[in-house]
Amino acid sequence: MTTLMIEIGALWLLAILSGLPLFAAMGLAALAFVALSGLSPSIVPQKMVQAMNSFPIVAAPLFILMGNLLGAARITDRIVRFATAVMGSLRGGYAQASILSSLIFAGMAGSAVADAAGTGAVEIRAMKRAGYRPETAASITASAATIGAIVPPSLPIVIFGVTSDISVGRLFLAGCVPGLMMAASLMVMVAVIGRRQGFPKQRFPGWRELWLSLRDGIFALLTPVILLSGMFSGLFTPTEAAAVASTYALFLGLVVYRTLTPADLFRVAVETVETVGVVAVLVMAAGALGWCMSLSRIPQTVAPAMVASIGSPLMFLLICNVMLLVVGCFMETLAALLILIPILMPAAHSFGIPPVQFGIMMIFNLILGTIHPPIGVVLFITSRIAEISFETMSRAVLPWLVPLLVVLAMITLWPPLTTFLPDLVMPR
Fold this sequence. Notes:
mainly alpha
């Protein structure tokens, strides 16, 4: 069966390279394995349904709904106004405000793409008006958008936790410190480059503007506070937190700010269903293919081979970093997670690597691919907003990858950066 699965895997990769949708390629590969193994084809739909029969995965569509509601209610404008009032008087203040806005919005949307599309338009326009070059404004916004996949709530973290059977709550906690480090490293980068390139410095808007921006956006700013404090205090689970957050976002849009209309709600519902459909079909197809790989003992074969050939946990992590960075450049983050988790997690377990550390490291690498040439979905979004070519955007973003890679190296080499908080708040 192992040989058969390898042969089918090779054909599956060829199908992906030929342009076949990933979910279709995974589903057909699973069906081919079952048929050629002499098993009943009805196993494939059973395993696909079983993959979705998980309480934690309900959080995924709810977090997607919450992000869409916050975007439709124009909550991002209030966040950017507050961040600009706080950071605008520093050199490169609009750039610093962009990073702070992304950090705040990351605690709501949980997606790099949602962050770039949500706060990106406001941030890039503000920086361009302040005198920043369009490619600089777009690069800073794209780099800061990656925080959304690491800081809770995070859709990739939910998918990783469900697929690898690891506590989503512990993974959320594991992402807090790396997320703050990402924001801090980008702010340091802005301070260093800002002096060298002469980033504009705005006058302090005054305490009145600071108070007005805080008052105007206080309910929006409380969203991540309510979400995280409820989860980490044990008041509700991550899945229940997603429902609470979606209800709160709806309340803000309809009652507090009154920026949501019936037409907006219909559009949000359609966008949410479309996104959930893509995520669900990927999870279902990956569930069936993962069962086939398990039956053919691919993970059980690959993990000992990697342990025997590599030998060192540190070398394994370094190899995984390089491999995942490359994969992240060419493959969508959720799809790459669903494919690679069954292969890499057993090897990481054999090396004694903490699961939460390896999970955050995997997501970190893959999310960097969204802002890394030659293919980066966030680069496409921000280049279109900034009205610059993709080639210009690709060159401009490269220096901003450096601080993020430094953070990646730190969480790879020092596990407590990801394990300390989960062990403190949710001891085993």
